[in-house]
Amino acid sequence: MSEPVAGARGLFVMPPPRLTNRYFLVRAGESEFESMGVINTNPVAKTSVDSGLSERGKKQSLRAAFDLKEMGACDNSCWIWPAITQRAYQTAEIIASLNGVTRSYIVPEYSFLDARGLGAYEGKNLESVSQIYASDGISPNIKPPPIDDGTPNESVADVFVRVTQLMSILETQYSGDTVVIVSPDSDNLSILQAGLIGLDLRRHRDLSFAPGEVRFVDTNDIPPYKQPASAVYKCLKPPNCN
What is the model's pTM? Predict the structure, then answer.
């Protein structure tokens, strides 16, 4: 019996009808920018020293590595997919070292896991993100104000498209594997998790991740797949389909 179209590998929908892999979501430890209380989401600075882990961030990443070890994430090997943002990749290296994962199993992600671009909030105090989340709670389509320095201004819906594309790649590329996703920020992960469990995207903030936090994607939290009406309805005498 053939799979439903929406269940075919590579055609990833949220919430998914199934997952072929085990997933762990990890937020990277605190960056130097974050330790200074400064918003930095311009992709130009992804690999700068100040985008790397702060001293506290290194401890948070080490805690994440121990958490993954205690959860048995990489007991039978795992793939680690970090953003190339400095703090995310450094976190991935710490995780790999503590869990006996070789460097060849670290797969850097170049765009789908970029920190959410916050537009005109770039360079402002971290506390000002509360204004962005207030807008998120109204509509997932509201973007932060734009800026002309190259920093994207992404809505929740924009990030949702990115993380859905990432999951489509992972579900197509691997089968029966464990994948540890390491994001430089919380929004990528909270929006991804909201999509997986079918939570209203306006409420993604309810699932926010602290620096260094680890979560297992429990398939029991994913609601049963419901076929769209177009897939269930059959027209027996086209074009008379009333």
Answer: 0.89
